[in-house]
Write a structure and sequence with these properties.
It is a multi-pass membrane protein. By secondary structure, the chain is mainly alpha-helical. It is built from 14 helices and 3 strands. It has helices at 16-28, 30-33, 35-57, 88-124, 126-140, 144-154, 159-170, 173-186, 190-197, 202-210, 215-238, 249-258, 271-295, 297-300; strands spanning 306-308, 314-318, 324-326. The chain has a 3-stranded antiparallel β-sheet, with no helix packed on it.
């Protein structure tokens, strides 16, 4: 029996946001909810804040001498003093700016170059793509650290920005190679072909169709470059290439090593700077692990080794290159 038309009520379609619900919004920020990622971001943000306000909150001038020679940590000098009476806590606080400046600047420069060269060469292909790929191969074999030592010795007044730019210009090739390989696998996907068939421009396809799918790879490349830049800056200061007028953690270790701090039992001279390096490296590693877990579904499982099959029985996951189900032992 047909119902009269008056019994039907017009119902307006629900908006996509209402249909998706809060789950869709949560998925956008799932990357930031992981414990490793959140911990890494908090520690990294702490060092960034210290780098910004460090010279203002340092209790002493890091280069100022005093009569408190080689004293252990105390209420006056939290991290102790050097053989010249310099406050090590102030040196660590002030030196954070140089380390973070070099690391983040080099990471930004290298990431921009890697994205421009890698994605462009992977999408364009042909002679242009091969030429950009050859350029990446050339920069792969350039020794970054010796080049920095030579230029830093020739231009001692260049400062942290010169070191950061050199590291950035010599560290983008690996990221470009990875991005090129990923772009080659994405450029023939259905959604890219549909965008190309609809008449979208090349740069619009790259920026709105391909780059969003490379976000995790780009972030991982950035974190890796920051780690390399930080360690390179500290290494240069430790071997005595950087200017001693600018404090960083490597400079503290250089003076501690040159004055035989370990032999004198002055553990407070090198332990704080070493711990700062270790904590920053751990934070960047946790951030990188969080990115890997966000990208890889296998890592997102959280290490679970048990699951239920279609029959409702608990089974044990045997994880190898290909995860398979194994029988649960009685």
């Amino acid at each position: 029996m047909a119902l009269p038309a008056a019994d039907f009520k017009a119902v307006a379609p629900l908006p996509a946001e209402a249909i998706a619900g809060p789950a869709a919004k949560r998925r956008r920020f799932r990357f930031l909810t992981g414990g490793k990622t959140l911990t890494g971001l908090i520690v990294l943000a702490f060092f960034v804040v210290i780098a910004i306000i460090g010279p203002w909150i340092a209790p002493f001038d890091p280069s100022a001498r005093s009569n408190d020679l080689l004293e252990s940590p105390s209420g006056k000098h939290w991290f102790g003093t050097t053989h010249l009476g310099q406050d090590i806590f102030s040196q660590v606080i002030v030196g954070t700016r140089s380390v973070m400046l070099v690391g983040l600047t080099a990471g930004i420069v290298a990431t921009i170059l890697a994205v421009l060269v890698g994605v462009t060469s992977g999408y364009l292909g042909g002679s242009a793509g091969e030429g950009l790929s050859a350029l990446s191969n050339v920069f792969l074999v350039i020794p970054a650290l010796p080049l920095i030592i030579i230029i830093g010795t020739a231009l001692p007044s260049g400062g942290d920005y010169l070191v950061a730019v050199i590291i950035g210009f010599t560290s983008w090739a690996w990221g470009a190679r990875i991005l090129r390989a990923q772009t080659l696998s994405l450029r023939r996907r259905e959604y890219v072909e549909a965008a190309r068939a609809s008449g979208e421009s090349t740069w619009r396809i790259i920026f709105f169709e391909i780059l969003p799918n490379l976000t995790a790879v780009i972030a991982s490349s950035f974190v890796g470059t920051v780690v390399f830049a930080v360690m390179s800056e500290i290494t240069l200061a430790f071997v005595g290439v950087s200017s001693f007028s600018e404090w960083n953690w490597g400079t503290i270790l250089f003076w501690a090593q040159s004055q035989q701090a370990l032999a004198q039992g002055a553990w407070w001279w090198f332990v704080p700077a070493g711990l700062a390096i270790a904590i920053l490296g751990t934070a960047l590693s946790l951030l990188n692990f969080g990115i890997d877990e966000f990208v890889s579904p296998r890592l997102r499982s959280g290490g679970k080794t048990k699951a239920k099959n279609a029959a409702g029985k608990t089974v044990r996951l045997r994880v190898g290159f290909t995860p398979v189900l194994g029988r649960e032992k009685p």
